[in-house]
Design brief:
heterodimer; A: 475 residues; alpha/beta; Amidase signature (AS) enzymes; 11-stranded mixed beta sheet; 39% helix; globular; B: 91 residues; two-stranded antiparallel sheet; 2 strands; GatC (chain B); glutaminyl-tRNA synthase (glutamine-hydrolyzing) activity (chain B); ligase (chain B)
């Protein structure tokens, strides 16, 4: 009998290599857990039982020593293509779409022997912070079923927190990995822009989107990231010189202990729950008492992050989503002419938030408003990015809360889009600047809702934030 | 902020119901009022960001990796080709 609750990638890998348990037993246990418990949580949109069992049998039959990810069962956000599996991106418009090829990050993991259990629920086209914008169903926070798991990768976070997958993949455009990881009490990494292939990711905002892993521990997140990272010629934004090594999972502790941690005051202002700020004090005191150098820094343009984001993101989304017009994808509603065909298909196929953002994006890019909105926002984005550059001259890593609040109640923020957008106010800047960000769950919160803290590092320095996170996790 | 929801929804080729029009009008006005804070930011001499990365152009040979990837998802097809409605109308 396997206890899914205590399992990590690291521990399962050891058990598999010692033949204490077989891959097929573990996969069957997860499939059973999904069958019995996912009705309540709603993490999955589709489960590939046959494919998962077949992959498990193949690995069990292999005579070679297994790599650390061989036989590890994970779930994948439904915006990322897994060959032959549905990929709806949480939208009715792609209800019947089946992925005709494998995404780049998925391919790398499959080559390591990772098992794909199924596809997880998400806000439609990744637009949301609670997974309530899914075109299909609600996902609930495994810690409290009346509350949201966060979003947009809420299904992926809930699957791991609910022990319905050992780890999972998500995508993060403004916090869509880190915020649900914080609300569900697990680790989640938004990777450096260009570090992980986005080939096969259904795009929302191309200058911001990144794929990254969720897992129960920071160490597990590092293991997945190490396998996923690297150049892919099928993604022209993937960086040919990106290269990572064992430092991601086997930190140089001397180097980690020498890191200076920056505390940007602008991330600790109004709107932060008392409970969250109290937790941050605990975490900062932990690092202090361990002898880390802590420095206050100022990032004065942080306050403009949300406004910049709500111009740049809808602009890019409105162009990326233009392809879902009823011509090449999805079902086609009958119409009397071409114009009507577009109007009908988009009007009926997209949900409210997607229509809102496409319309907003169309406006900020339209003749007469482009300079005032889009171009202005891209200039202010430079200022936000310069804040990071200046801060990283003084410190190595930034420590902030990940989400201003703990998980909120289902329905609490759906009527007021701006209030929902505020959920991402602390995670958006890392996307604007393209730097990596990690959510680390705050420890010893049994019986209370999870809180997470965010570590942001320099471009390509995931090893710093992962190492610092692992240091906290192990002590 | 005066915002003509009908105009931009039509430019985006999205048909909205009357109820949606009313709600989105209010929602988007609120959002635009919020982002108006950027008006007062001094960006003299500041260059705009143009993408997520400073990479130069990346080229690869334009060779088909895998045929027939798209047609299983076509809403209407004939002999492996995508079927589209008439673009020109008599009316």
């Amino acid at each position: 009998m396997i206890n899914l609750e205590d399992l990590t990638i690291k521990s399962l890998s050891q058990k598999l290599n010692k033949k204490e348990v077989s891959v097929i037993e573990v996969v069957k246990e997860y499939l059973k857990a999904i069958k019995t418990r996912d009705k309540k949580i709603g993490a999955y949109l589709s489960v590939d039982e046959e494919g998962a069992l077949e992959s498990a049998r193949q690995i069990d039959a292999s005579k070679e020593k297994l790599g650390v990810l061989a036989g590890i069962p994970i779930a994948v956000k439904d915006a990322i293509l897994v060959n032959g599996q549905p990929a709806t991106a949480g939208s009715k418009i792609l209800e019947k779409y089946v992925a005709p090829y494998e995404g780049g990050a998925v391919e790398r993991l499959r080559n390591e022997g990772v098992i794909f259990l199924g596809k997880t629920n998400m806000d439609e086209f990744a637009m949301g912070s609670s997974t309530e914008n899914s075109g299909f169903k609600l996902t609930k926070n495994p810690h409290d079923l009346k509350r949201v798991p966060g979003g947009s990768s809420g299904g992926s976070a809930a699957a791991v927190a609910g022990n319905l997958a050992l780890a999972s993949l998500g995508s993060d455009t403004g916090g869509s990995i880190r915020q649900p990881a914080a609300l569900c009490g697990i680790a989640g990494l938004k990777t450096t822009y260009g570090a992980v292939s986005r080939y096969g990711l259904i795009a929302m905002a191309s200058s911001l989107d990144q794929i990254g892993p969720f897992a129960k521990t920071v160490e597990d997140v590092g293991l997945l990231f190490q396998a996923m990272a690297g150049y892919d010629e099928w993604d022209s934004t993937s960086n040919p010189s990106a290269s990572y090594g064992d430092e991601l999972t086997k930190p140089d502790w001397k180097k980690i202990k020498g890191l200076t941690i920056g505390i940007p005051e602008e991330y600790f202002g109004e709107g932060i729950d008392k409970e969250v700020s109290a937790s941050m004090d605990e975490v900062i005191n932990f690092y202090k008492s361990e002898g880390f150098k802590i420095k206050s820094v100022s990032m004065p343009n942080t306050k403009y992050g949300l406004s910049v984001y709500y111009i740049v993101m809808p602009a890019e989304a409105s162009t990326n989503l233009a392809r879902f017009d009823g011509i090449r994808y999805g079902t086609r509603n009958k119409a009397k002419n071409l114009l009507d065909l577009y109007l009908e298909n988009k009007g009926k196929g997209f949900g409210a938030e997607v229509k809102r953002r496409i319309t907003l994006g169309t406006f900020v890019l339209s003749a007469g408003y482009y300079d005032a909105y889009y171009l202005k926002a891209q200039r202010v984005r430079t200022l936000v990015n310069q804040d990071f550059e200046k801060a990283f001259e003084k410190v190595d890593v930034l420590l902030t809360p990940t989400s201003p609040t703990v998980a909120f109640k289902i329905g609490e923020r759906t009527q007021n889009p701006l209030e929902m957008y505020m959920s991402d106010i602390l995670t958006i800047p890392a996307n604007l600047a393209g730097v990596p960000g990690l959510n680390v769950p705050v420890k010893d919160r049994e019986g209370r809702l999870p809180v997470g803290f965010q570590l942001m590092g320099r471009h390509w320095q995931e090893a710093d934030i992962l190492g610092l996170g692992m240091y906290y996790e192990r002590k | 902020m005066n915002f003509d929801i009908k105009k931009y929804a039509h430019l985006a080729r999205i048909k909205l119901s009357n109820k949606e029009e009313k709600k989105f009008q209010k929602d988007l006005e609120k959002i635009l009022d919020h982002v108006a804070e950027l008006e007062k930011v001094d960006v003299g001499g500041v260059k705009p960001v143009t993408g997520g990365t400073n990479l130069e152009n990346i080229f690869r040979e334009d060779i088909v990796k895998n045929d027939n990837l798209l047609n299983p998802s076509f809403p209407e097809e004939e002999k492996g080709y995508l079927k589209v409605p008439k673009v020109f109308n008599n009316d």
